Amino acid sequence: MLKYILINVLLFAFINSMVAQNKTTDQRPNIIFILTDDQPYDYLSVTGNKVITTPNIDRLANEGTLFTNAHITSPICMPSRVSMLISQFERKHGVNFNSATALSEEAWQNSYPMVMRDAGYFTAYIGKNHTPLGKNGYKSMVMENSFDYFYGGHRHLGFYPKDRHKIFRGAKKDTQIEIVEEAAFDVLDNNDFRIEQAFKVMEGRPTDQPFLINLCFNLPHGASTSSMQQRKSDDELYKSFLRDQEIPLPENYIAKKDIKTPKLPADLLRVEDRQNIYDHVDTPEMTKERLIRQYQAMKGIDRLIGHLQEKLKELKLDKNTIIVFSSDHGLLMGQYGLGGKALLYEYCTRVSTIIYDPTIPKKKRVPQTDALVQSIDIAPTLLAKAGISIPEVYQGKDLSPLLVNKETEVRPYLFTENLWSTQFGNPRCEAVQDKEWKYIRYYKNENFSASKRIQYAKAMGINVNSVLYSMTDKEIPIYRSFVEGPLNGEIPVYEELYHLSTDPNELHNLAGDSFYKEKLQSLRKVWENEIKNARGEGQPLVERFTVESSFEFQKNPSALIHD
Predict the structure, then answer these.
(1) 513 vs 14: CA distance, rounded Å
(2) Could you tell me the sign of the dihedral formed by the alpha carbons of 321, 322, 323, 329, in that order?
(3) Rounded Cα–Cα distance for residues 228 and 239 (Å)
(4) Is 192 helix (H, G, I), strand (E, B) or coil?
(5) pLDDT tens digits for 154-207?
(6) Residue 68 burial class via C-beta count within 10 angstroms: exposed 0-12, middle 13-18, buried 19 and up
């Protein structure tokens, strides 16, 4: 009997030692994904900005790979971020501000954070969350419970997150970038977590696990920078930087009073219904003020990245930590006389994307590539770098080969789409492009006017934001018709064709020129194929996220959470 006990004890000890050995020998790379908001491609010195320098982000690009032809899939915060998380086009995942839906927990299981957590990564999420999850959207707590460390706010953070979100009120600093940095260091330091308000599942970050940290900003976002106040507690950067300089206007800027020929037909893009948060583009003075604020935010983010690199080096994590940098979309800052996003011009869809991988020998790294890549490629690339199988439901491509082979391509065409067609005047549109040409098609804009909604709401004493932003069950079939209409034969009411090689700023629409009829026709065929691929098979894995569903949840939450 003693013999068997001894054998069992030795066997148990051996198993435990093997488990401990496996933990301490997990050499998979750490990954930090940094996502900015509303950041145009040229807001970095490495991508051509002449006003500010961003030395720390530049260093990532110079020592890693800068993608000069990277684009998002949808030029709106929510669908773009969902697309990054689950590597699907919006047409497949079905979540936007006007979709009246939230991503289901079933779909969320294939998000790269969940897949990496299941594969043994310690996962953290810090900053802005714009992905509603589960049967009560942001209030479901699915996002909070999906990470080992969660310190984020749903929807907009503003420049002063404490004013908006209770979770941030214990932070030492008041400004968004500094609060994000504080939390990032909280995760990286191997002490017990000190930020009490963060959602945590353990006392500290295990040193025997590789980590995934998502740092998601709500800057240099146009609306967030509008809330900057130059408070006494603000860093000097946010008070005085650039205020003694003359700021140049964006190339192709047109003040509202100087617009002679609108970029798009007035019945297609109804600029009078544009959200007032973009009114700053109407005059040079307001535009320059907003540019100063956005550049200040970019300098702050660049400084954070410098501090982050120093911290990684201090902790001896720098040699095995991959850093990915990108944005959820660009922004029109008065180009063509337009403001905002939601259109498919390069100003809205092209983003500065960088992958810095120190595990690749320096001589083998490709410093820059003009390969056509998209935001849906981020998730499969992170998984590939972590040695994790890529889910079959992903629509993106692994970009790892592009980091070491300059001649590699992952796709011949890009497909981008805007399904956020609302009372704010934005039309539905889709685009396909290669390195030389871009084709955009638009559909009839029949949405009720925002200006009328505001007028009548005020006359009746109704809350304007409720009238503008509340989603009801009636919106779901409307959005679904937006998704399926073009696939079922809906014809465009307007088209654009641009020769990007000679007209990178998309100033000259060639769609009506008979000389380019053959090229137009060939890109229409490309569109037909690409939109089918983007839609994929099956129905989107979503939940209702409406006034009615919220009421039902409050009435009987257990029935909605547990089917």
Answers:
(1) 76
(2) negative
(3) 9
(4) strand
(5) 999 999 999 999 999 999 999 999 999 999 999 999 778 999 999 999 889 999
(6) middle
Distance CA 169, CA 153 (A): 11
Residue 459's Cβ-count burial label (10 Å; 0-12, 13-18, 19+) is exposed
- Are residues 30 and 320 in contact, defined by beta-carbon separation less than 8 angstroms? yes
DSSP track, 466-535: HHHH---TTHHHHHHHHHHTGGGTPPPSEEEEEETTT-TT-----TT-GGGHHHHHHHHHHHHHHHHHHH
CA 279 to chain centre: 23
86/527 Cα distance (integer angstroms): 23
Structure tokens given for 22: 């496996």
Contact status, residue 374 vs residue 414, Cβ threshold 8 Å: yes
On the question of pLDDT at 340 being above 80, the answer is yes
* 348, 330 Cβ separation under 8 angstroms: yes
- Residue 114 CB burial class (10 angstroms; 0-12, 13-18, ≥19): middle
Three-state DSSP state, 152: strand
CB contact at 8 A, 344 and 363: no
Q: Which residues of 342-357 are buried (b: 16+ CB within 10 A; e: fewer)?
A: bbbbbbbbbbbbbbbb
Euclidean distance between CA atoms 397 and 28, whole angstroms: 21
Q: pTM value?
A: 0.93
Determine how β-strand 211-216 pairs with β-strand 30-36: parallel
- SS3 string, 269-338, reads CCHHHCCHHHHHHHCHHHHHHHHHHHHHHHHHHHHHHHHHHHHHHHCCCHHHEEEEEEECCCCEECECCC
pLDDT tens string 477-506: 999 999 999 999 999 999 999 999 999 999
Distance CA 385, CA 367 (A): 18
